Amino acid sequence: MGFVKEFKEFAIKGSVMDLAVGVIIGGAFGKIIDSVVNDLVMPLISAVIGSVDFSNMYVVLKGTVTEGMALVDARKVPGTVVFAYGNFITVAINFLLLALAVFMLVKGINSLKRKQEAAPAAPAAPTQDQVLLTEIRDLLKTK
C-alpha cells in the first residue's frame, strides 16, 4: 500500500476527524477559561490580596532588589535569586477552573447517557410467526 493512500485512509477515518474537532473546540474552550480566570476570577482575588498583577509577585531569596521592582527587572539584577510564584498562582487557578468545567461537562453527558439507557425500549412489533402462533392459540382456546 502506498504511503499517500495509507495516509489518506488514516486521515479520513471518523475518529481522526472527531479528534481534530475536539482539539479545535478545546483550544477555543481554553481561551474562554483563560478569559474567566484573567478577567473575572483574578481581579476578585487581587482585590482581597491587594495586588492587581500576579505575574509580578515574587520573593527575593538571594540578593537585593528595589522594592516594587517588576519581576523582569528583578531577574536582571546580578547575583539575585528570585522565587516567582505569581504566574504559578494564575496557571494553577486556570487549571482548576478548566478541570472543573470539563468535569461538569463529562458529568452532564454521563447523566444524559444514563437517562437514555434507563428509558424503556418500545416493544417491537410482533413478527409474522408470533402473529400466526397467537391466532393458533386463540383457535385452540375456542375449541
UniProtKB/TrEMBL annotation:
The lineage of its organism: Bacteria, Pseudomonadati, Bacteroidota, Sphingobacteriia, Sphingobacteriales. Pfam families: MscL. Keywords: Cell inner membrane, Cell membrane, Ion channel, Ion transport, Membrane, Transmembrane, Transmembrane helix, Transport. It comes from Pedobacter heparinus (strain ATCC 13125 / DSM 2366 / CIP 104194 / JCM 7457 / NBRC 12017 / NCIMB 9290 / NRRL B-14731 / HIM 762-3). It is a multi-pass membrane protein. It is found in: Cell inner membrane; Membrane. One of its GO terms (cellular component) is plasma membrane. One of its GO terms (molecular function) is mechanosensitive monoatomic ion channel activity. The chain crosses the membrane at residues 12-33, 40-61, 81-106. Channel that opens in response to stretch forces in the membrane lipid bilayer. May participate in the regulation of osmotic pressure changes within the cell. This is Large-conductance mechanosensitive channel. Homopentamer. Belongs to the MscL family.
